[in-house]
UniProtKB/TrEMBL annotation:
Signal sequence bounds: 1-28
Pfam family, one: YkuD
Entries under Gene3D superfamilies matching the protein: 2.60.40.3710, 2.60.40.3780, L,D-transpeptidase catalytic domain-like (2.40.440.10)
Residues of the active site: 331 (proton donor/acceptor), 350 (nucleophile)
The protein, known as: Ig-like domain-containing protein
Ranges where the record places region Disordered: 31-50
Keywords for this protein: Acyltransferase, Cell shape, Cell wall biogenesis/degradation, Peptidoglycan synthesis, Signal, Transferase
UniProt KW Signal keyword: yes
Skewed-composition ranges (Gly residues): 31-48
Source species taxonomy: Bacteria, Bacillati, Actinomycetota, Actinomycetes, Kitasatosporales
Length: 407
């Protein structure tokens, strides 16, 4: 009986083995029913690609993820090896995107401007290899918090309507040594478009203007992106501001110190001719193009503040409009006889018009001119026995040739 049990055990696995071989043949890949495809139908015996291989493109971000106190310029740079950058987004936590430039070969991305100070940024960058496979990197970093800062005090005011001679003038609270970076952070544009250039007066004042007076009706936009700009070693801007203003009608007034008259021209037409008194022989009026920068219905004028000692101190000068930082005004004069205007030059350098004390009479020449003038209107003085006013004495850069202005 023992041998019989042995035959039964060896025959049964053979049947199962045959079934297993049949099953293997039925499930083999390829359509070769003869079972001769030893490589599953693939020549050369290689390994098939599954389509899940990693991208060869690698994204690198500087500064490193989590970095603190990062410099606002010269550090942020995103690169790709083994592929090209296809998407780069850098934004602060409020969603304000950082404008940047992607190299033509797709290998690098750098910001177009400095970053803001004391700000956290998030970076999202994607690169693609030659096979079209993508890789991405997401990082965060924060910029330094400066100990010393500066801002720019600007004129004209946001939303104002000004005369055709009004420049954009920015006075900084700290002396600037990196003037190129600061000027790059400020853009001035106009509609209709016209070339606009900046000019530095010293290291704390930057003015912008076109070659000629603005055209009437021009819309001007000033964008100040000074936050994070290192204006001098260790001193950073902290200001981001957009200012717009409109240029009103064209009004240019010409004062002739010899004939003692001034002619007011609006939009190319003579509006009025007014008798005036200019600077006396010992205190002549500057020649040149001057811009009205301030208007006061009544103000005090004290000679001691402009180098004239105690020669005069008038507490209620009416209808005063500033033409220079050094104290030149067009203003009303109620203390001189009416016969003075148009016949004598008796002032300490200002241009005087007949007026009434208290600035209450709207019919006087001074009141009329005051009411018809805008900040930014141009007053040109000629034929005075004095020098031309300095371009930085007030908003008077028009006294500088364009070629010199753009140097």
């Amino acid at each position: 009986m023992q041998p019989i049990r042995g035959r039964v055990r060896t025959g049964l696995p053979a049947v199962l083995l045959g079934a297993a071989l049949l099953l293997t043949t039925a499930c083999s890949g390829g359509g070769n029913s003869g079972g001769s495809g030893g490589d599953n139908g693939k020549a050369g015996g290689g390994t098939a690609k599954t389509g899940t291989e990693a991208s060869k493109a690698v994204v690198n971000v500087k500064p490193d993820d989590g970095s603190k106190e990062v410099a606002t310029s010269g550090v942020l740079k995103i690169t790709s090896s083994g592929g090209k950058l296809t998407t780069v987004t850098v934004a602060d936590t409020k969603g304000n995107a950082v404008e940047g430039k992607l190299a033509a070969d797709g290998a690098t991305w750098e910001p177009a401007r400095n970053l803001a100070a004391a700000t956290e940024y998030k970076v999202h960058a994607v690169a693609k290899d030659e096979a079209g496979r993508e890789s991405a990197k997401d990082t965060t970093f924060s910029t330094l918090t400066p100990q010393n800062t500066f801002v720019g005090h600007y004129t004209p005011e946001d939303g104002s309507t000004v005369g055709v001679g009004m420049p954009v003038s920015i006075n900084f609270t700290r002396g600037i040594t990196n003037t190129e970076a600061v000027e790059k952070a400020i853009t001035v544009t106009a509609e209709p478009s016209v070339p606009i250039e900046g000019h530095w007066f010293g290291n704390d004042r930057l003015d912008f203007r076109p070659e000629k007076y603005w055209a009437a009706g021009t819309k001007v936009t000033v964008k100040m992106a000074l936050d994070g700009v290192e204006g001098r070693p260790g001193v950073y801007g902290k200001q981001t501001r957009t200012v717009t203003f409109t240029v009103g009608r064209s009004q240019v007034t010409t004062v002739d110190a010899t004939s003692k008259k001034m002619e007011v021209v609006r939009d190319g037409q003579v509006l009025k001719t007014i008798p005036i008194t200019a600077g006396a022989p010992s205190t002549t009026t500057y020649n040149g193009q001057m811009v009205i920068s301030e208007k006061y219905k009544v103000t005090r004028m004290n000679g001691a503040t402009v180098g004239f000692g105690g020669e005069y101190d008038i507490s209620d000068v009416p209808h005063a409009m500033r033409l220079s930082t050094s104290g030149t005004f067009v203003h009303g004069n109620y203390w001189a006889p009416s016969s003075t205007f148009g016949s004598e030059n008796v002032s300490h350098g200002c241009v005087g018009l007949e007026d009434e004390r208290g600035a209450g009479d709207p019919n006087t020449p001074a009141a009329w001119f005051f009411n018809e003038s805008l900040i930014g209107d141009v007053v040109v003085v000629k034929n005075s026995k004095d020098k031309q006013i300095a371009p930085d004495n007030g908003l008077n850069g028009w006294n500088m040739d364009w070629a010199e202005w753009i140097k």
